[in-house]
């Protein structure tokens, strides 16, 4: 297929016209023939089979059943009404449910006459049910045309309002295949096609839109998923290889006096095996003459900070400056205090730069930074400002990575002609499969061992009705000299409400834990940074025993004497957030506790989250559950979902295909790094196109 035919504006496809073209563009992002071709169906209706009610499975699949309605009734529920019909065949009964259009349905449905119903089958209240089924009288059905597998395309309300129904899209797709004669250029090598037994491109595209049967559909899907993941991996791996080859990095070949002195005289504890291994991996990068771009994953409390400190010392030993960027002022502050304490005895100059640093101090920091007198700069986003210029930045460390966007990372990078080495630290464990796709171009180190002597945190779930007992427990712990966090949810959409919850909670806590025996700190988003810091500080210094807060304390705060974490309305938190919060305790030698408070009404997903938290302290395990519950987009936040904007593959479900894709991409690059072999020409050609388009599917076809 000539590429330019596929680039034809969609308006020229027979049956489209300017109005439809506009709607297709705004609603589905379709500009060209190619874009339409790459609009893959979400699902298919398999109308080749009829099921008996007794044969239905809890598979949530679309099914077709013949039977009749024996009664129909309206059921009142909290939000509006629903219409429920009992539907039977000779093997059993099920329910049909409508939430909308009830009047019309009531008036038009016929009792005791055979219908063919079609739709998604749910298991609900011990029965199968189907909401808003497609229905047709059996007599009509028998007259109609039989389509085997009917594709269902993504749709929007606007599309259907403008009459671009699924049937219309279907027609347009047929027209597209007619005008292009269905001839599409192959984009993988013969070798791959043979080895993986993949359908040729043209055949895969045909069968994804017009599947002849289940088997060919499955093969078409496999081929397209593989291809999608293969090119993403190829891109990531090439990027990584290029970076290693081409992007010169500062050579930190000296392990010098600072590093040694610190290791021998100032290290406050013996490093764990994992910490030692990671430092070794980092040292290998720094001495490789290529730029380091490493992601350091380690669960909360695994001791990433000391690794950061020692890496910074390597930079200093080689005559460079280093910086550490944290996502919040509190955290930057804490890093600054801790690092200054460790390093100032060695005559190393550190400074803190955040939004609330005063202008005069800021100016002197700028000057000291430019002269090179300042060795280490710690701070927030403030580091990214143009005015912040280093004398010779050799290393940039970013803590808690997923809160910073990729663009921000790049900005740090551009502070020098030669990019500094980059170490990104995250406490949010990223499941391996996801890491492979999101950070396939980074190197990854993992601290998978906690410092010795830590007792696993005991986690329990308590209902609000048990609050008195929980409060008694808090009193007992405080009597032993411990400190307690009580955290309230903060969800942007209802900030006012959250604030009220927090204040109500605070008042009741203040009543139950009265002065002068108890001192309480409170920190929330509406406070001025200075006030926040003041309250935080009192807690850090042990002047207050209870810290009532919204999730601002989520990230990184370290108070080893705090041993109880109470999370209010725990059902409203996501898993990774719960895990992060829990990580605020268990940092000292004492047994720590995490108490998840909820009301009695819980969704099944919330139950799964709570059960997972109670069952395990392992961040990776929790991340896997989270990934399954929420899917990759939500898990990583929108800023990174670009890479995950997959059209057909699913990073979670297609894990095996992903592994195969990575394996074959790796092998290809090893055997033919320049993609110069004749048989790899289709891949080379596709890959070159790949650089020119933002959407991966624009070049795969
Ligand atoms: P995180 O990985 O969450 O950033 P930190 O670096 O804040 O963890 O470390 C958590 C706590 O563990 C700190 O109090 C730190 O001093 C301590 N710590 C780190 N490494 C060790 C170790 N090898 N032995 C004992 N304590 C350690
Ligand atoms: Mg940390």
From TrEMBL:
Database matches in InterPro entries: ATP-dep_DNA_helicase_RecG, DEAD/DEAH_box_helicase_dom, Helicase_ATP-bd, Helicase_C-like, NA-bd_OB-fold, P-loop_NTPase, RecG/Mfd, RecG_dom3_C
Keywords of this entry: ATP-binding, DNA damage, DNA recombination, DNA repair, DNA-binding, Helicase, Hydrolase, Isomerase, Nucleotide-binding
DNA repair is among the record's keywords: yes
SUPFAM superfamilies cross-referenced by the UniProt entry: Nucleic acid-binding proteins (SSF50249), P-loop containing nucleoside triphosphate hydrolases (SSF52540)
Organism: Pseudozobellia thermophila
Protein name: ATP-dependent DNA helicase RecG
Function recorded in the entry: Plays a critical role in recombination and DNA repair. Helps process Holliday junction intermediates to mature products by catalyzing branch migration. Has replication fork regression activity, unwinds stalled or blocked replication forks to make a HJ that can be resolved. Has a DNA unwinding activity characteristic of a DNA helicase with 3'-5' polarity.
Family: Belongs to the helicase family. RecG subfamily.
The protein's enzyme class: isomerase
Gene Ontology molecular function, alphabetical: 3'-5' DNA helicase activity; ATP binding; ATP hydrolysis activity; DNA binding
Every Helicase C-terminal domain range: 469-633
DNA-binding in keyword set: yes
Domain Helicase ATP-binding positions: 285-447
Catalytic activity: Couples ATP hydrolysis with the unwinding of duplex DNA by translocating in the 3'-5' direction; ATP + H2O = ADP + phosphate + H(+)
Gene3D superfamilies per UniProt: Nucleic acid-binding proteins, P-loop containing nucleotide triphosphate hydrolases
EC number, UniProt record: 5.6.2.4
One GO term of the biological process aspect: DNA recombination
């Amino acid at each position: 297929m000539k590429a330019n035919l596929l680039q034809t504006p969609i308006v020229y496809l027979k049956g489209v016209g300017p109005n439809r073209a506009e709607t297709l563009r705004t609603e589905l992002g379709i500009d060209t023939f190619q874009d339409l071709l790459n609009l893959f169906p979400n699902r298919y209706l398999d109308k080749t089979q009829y099921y008996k009610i007794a044969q239905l499975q809890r598979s949530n699949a679309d099914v077709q059943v013949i039977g009749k309605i024996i009664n129909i009734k309206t059921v009142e529920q909290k939000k509006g009404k629903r219409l429920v019909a009992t539907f039977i065949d000779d093997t059993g009964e099920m329910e049909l449910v409508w939430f909308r259009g009830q009047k019309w349905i009531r008036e038009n449905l016929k009792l005791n006459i055979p219908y063919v119903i079609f739709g998604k089958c749910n298991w609900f209240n011990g029965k199968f049910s189907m909401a808003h089924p497609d229905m047709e009288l059996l007599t009509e059905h028998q007259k109609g045309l039989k389509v085997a597998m009917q594709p269902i395309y993504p749709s929007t309300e606007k599309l259907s309002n403008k009459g671009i129904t699924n049937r219309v899209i279907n027609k347009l797709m047929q027209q597209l295949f007619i005008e292009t004669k269905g001839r599409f250029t192959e984009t993988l090598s013969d070798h791959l096609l043979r080895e993986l037994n993949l359908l040729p491109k043209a055949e895969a595209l045909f069968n994804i839109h017009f599947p002849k049967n289940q088997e060919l559909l499955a093969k078409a899907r496999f081929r397209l998923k593989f291809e999608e993941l293969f090119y993403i991996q190829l891109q990531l791996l090439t990027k990584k290889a290029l970076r290693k080859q081409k992007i010169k990095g500062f050579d930190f070949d000296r392990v010098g006096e600072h590093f040694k002195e610190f290791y021998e005289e100032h290290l406050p504890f013996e490093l764990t095996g994992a910490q030692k291994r990671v430092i070794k991996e980092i040292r290998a990068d720094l001495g490789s003459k290529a730029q380091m771009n490493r992601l350091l994953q380690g669960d909360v409390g695994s001791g990433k900070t000391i690794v950061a400190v020692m890496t910074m010392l390597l930079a200093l030993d080689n005559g460079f400056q280093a910086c550490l960027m944290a996502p919040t002022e509190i955290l930057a502050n804490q890093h600054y205090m801790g690092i200054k304490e460790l390093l100032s005895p060695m005559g190393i100059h550190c400074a803190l730069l955040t939004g609330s640093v005063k202008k005069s101090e800021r100016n002197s920091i700028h000057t000291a930074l430019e002269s090179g007198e300042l060795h280490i700069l710690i701070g927030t986003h403030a580091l990214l400002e143009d005015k912040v210029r280093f004398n010779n930045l050799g290393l940039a460390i970013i803590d808690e990575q997923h809160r910073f966007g990729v663009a921000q990372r790049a900005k740090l990078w551009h502070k020098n002609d030669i990019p500094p080495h980059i170490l990104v630290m995250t406490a949010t464990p990223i499941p391996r499969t996801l890491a492979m796709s999101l950070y396939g171009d980074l190197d990854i180190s993992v601290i998978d061992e906690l410092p010795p002597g830590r007792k696993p945190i005991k986690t329990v779930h308590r209902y609000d009705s048990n609050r008195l007992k929980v409060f008694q427990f808090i009193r007992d712990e405080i009597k032993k000299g411990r400190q307690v966090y009580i955290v309230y949810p903060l969800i942007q959409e209802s900030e006012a409400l959250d604030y009220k919850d927090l204040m109500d909670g605070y008042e009741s806590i203040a009543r139950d834990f009265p002065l002068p025996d108890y001192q309480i700190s409170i920190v929330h988003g509406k406070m001025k940074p200075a006030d926040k810091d003041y309250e935080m500080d009192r807690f850090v210094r042990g002047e207050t025993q209870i810290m009532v807060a919204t999730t601002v304390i989520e990230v990184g705060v370290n108070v080893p004497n705090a041993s109880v974490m109470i999370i209010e309305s725990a059902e409203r938190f996501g898993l990774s957030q719960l895990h992060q919060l829990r990580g605020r305790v268990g940092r000292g030698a004492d047994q720590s506790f995490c108490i998840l408070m909820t009301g009695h009404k819980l969704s099944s997903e919330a139950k799964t989250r709570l059960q997972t938290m109670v069952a395990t302290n392992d961040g990776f395990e929790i991340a896997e559950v989270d990934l399954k519950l929420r899917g990759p987009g939500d898990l990583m936040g929108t800023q990174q979902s670009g890479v995950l904007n997959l059209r057909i593959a699913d990073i979670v479900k297609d894990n095996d295909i992903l592994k195969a894709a990575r394996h074959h991409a790796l092998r290809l690059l090893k055997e033919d790094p320049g993609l110069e072999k004749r048989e790899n020409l289709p891949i080379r050609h596709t890959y070159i196109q790949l650089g020119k388009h933002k959407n991966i599917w624009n070049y795969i076809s």
